[in-house]
Automatic annotation (TrEMBL):
<dbReference type="GO" id="GO:0016787">
    <property type="term" value="F:hydrolase activity"/>
</dbReference>
<dbReference type="InterPro" id="IPR040921">
    <property type="entry name" value="Peptidase_S66C"/>
</dbReference>
<dbReference type="InterPro" id="IPR027478">
    <property type="entry name" value="LdcA_N"/>
</dbReference>
<dbReference type="InterPro" id="IPR003507">
    <property type="entry name" value="S66_fam"/>
</dbReference>
<dbReference type="InterPro" id="IPR027461">
    <property type="entry name" value="Carboxypeptidase_A_C_sf"/>
</dbReference>
<dbReference type="InterPro" id="IPR040449">
    <property type="entry name" value="Peptidase_S66_N"/>
</dbReference>
<dbReference type="Pfam" id="PF02016">
    <property type="entry name" value="Peptidase_S66"/>
</dbReference>
<feature type="domain" description="LD-carboxypeptidase N-terminal">
    <location>
        <begin position="29"/>
        <end position="149"/>
    </location>
</feature>
<dbReference type="Pfam" id="PF17676">
    <property type="entry name" value="Peptidase_S66C"/>
</dbReference>
<protein>
    <submittedName>
        <fullName>Microcin C7 self-immunity protein MccF</fullName>
    </submittedName>
</protein>
<feature type="domain" description="LD-carboxypeptidase C-terminal">
    <location>
        <begin position="223"/>
        <end position="345"/>
    </location>
</feature>
<comment type="similarity">
    <text>Belongs to the peptidase S66 family.</text>
</comment>
<dbReference type="InterPro" id="IPR029062">
    <property type="entry name" value="Class_I_gatase-like"/>
</dbReference>
<keyword id="KW-0378">Hydrolase</keyword>
Length: 364
């Protein structure tokens, strides 16, 4: 088995990540929509998810920026930012879980007081898609561990997939002992319209197969600290304090750093352009490995055009670190819950794999 890079248990790490307390029954969860809100046609789904949290013993508080959608957001920028800050600073709130992502979370970045949050008790924030536009800065600027995983609208009682149903268990873990998640058996291609079927679970129809970019099925282990998010949004943070991934990589030292990304809509040409931009901004230098989720971009119909896998090979094929793709991350669920800032061991063999995460580094 190949090991990248070293996984030293007692290495000195300059990155100081603060892990929130494990979620417990009785804890207060705040539901707000910092990006897209929830139209009335989707309220039945939202209420089902909220009641499911309550059935698990959590208390739930709803924000005012939630049950509406105007101009692609739940509310004007300053209102969304103020509500999110209030929940993040409230010592009684243990977690903030948006209903889903959207498109305009980036509007909040220059309004939120990330520096001020350093004096607040860290709490979990869970989600993916545009929510990751907030998760990455929370980790890189504020130092809080954040959870890239299922959205609230995925967390309904009819759900049976272990990765999705296990998301809250990850947040309930101490992380002093590794939390292990295994690759799924099948994944979803087509999203269900919650307006028509408000209680519908994931429709897992396609066989899951993790892949190595070098084409090998041989065993591989990658170790390092996790950081990442939605390819379409977090890559636009490169060069700013909100996306200072190079500093994260450098500070992770000999333990290493693992970047994960998941493509929503970028064409193969767009993938190449953004990956080249990340390389120029130093996001790829010194990585232990790169994890890529299943892409949801429209497939290429013309055989003469560049295809997605070809775009990855042409851009990343000569990198010194291993690249895994088609992993359980992102918009083709189910997906794992990945903790930004956590120490991770990613094991791959024969098209399947596991990701173990902990708050301290793994032994060799």
């Amino acid at each position: 088995m190949l090991l990248f890079p070293g996984g030293i248990a007692n290495a000195t790490i300059a990155v100081m990540v603060l892990f929130p307390e494990p979620l417990r029954p009785g804890d207060l969860i705040a539901v707000t929509a910092p990006s897209s809100g929830v139209l009335p046609t989707m309220h039945s789904r939202l209420e089902l998810a909220i009641e499911h949290l309550r059935a698990q013993g959590f208390r739930v508080i709803e924000g005012a920026c939630l049950r509406d959608q105007r101009r692609s957001t739940s509310a004007p920028r300053n209102e969304r930012a103020a509500e999110l800050m209030r929940f993040l600073q409230d010592p009684e709130v243990a977690a903030v879980i948006p209903p889903w992502g959207g498109e305009l979370a980036s509007e909040l970045l220059d309004v939120l007081d990330f520096e001020g949050l350093r004096d607040s008790k860290p709490k979990w924030m869970l989600g993916y898609s545009d929510t990751s536009t907030l998760l990455m800065p929370l980790t890189l600027v504020t130092g809080w561990a954040t959870a890239h995983g299922p959205n609230l609208m995925d967390l309904v009682p009819t759900q049976s997939d272990p990765l999705t149903t296990g998301a809250m268990s990850v947040l309930a873990s101490h992380l002093q002992d590794p939390v292990v998640q295994a690759s799924s058996e099948r994944y979803q291609v087509n999203f269900v319209d919650y307006a028509d079927q408000f209680d519908e679970p994931l429709q897992l129809t396609e066989p899951t197969r993790w892949k190595r970019l070098d084409g090998s099925d041989e065993a591989l282990e990658i170790r390092g600290r996790l950081i990442g998010g939605c390819f379409d949004t977090v890559t636009l943070l490169a060069g700013s304090q909100y996306g200072d991934v190079p500093a994260f990589i450098q500070s992770s030292g000999s333990v290493g750093a693992i970047l994960y990304l998941e493509n929503v809509s970028q064409s193969p040409g767009g993938v190449v352009r953004l990956l080249l931009s990340l390389r120029r901004h130093g996001w790829l230098e010194g990585l232990s490995g790169l994890l890529l989720g299943r892409s949801t971009a429209a497939p290429e119909e013309n055989p003469a055009d560049l295809h997605y896998e070809g775009a990855l090979i042409s851009t990343l094929g000569q990198e010194p670190f291993p690249v895994l793709f088609d992993l359980d991350i992102g918009h083709r669920p189910p997906q794992m819950t990945l903790i930004n800032g956590a120490f991770a061991s990613v094991c791959f063999e024969g098209g399947a794999g596991t990701i173990s995460q902990a708050s301290t580094a793994f032994d060799r």
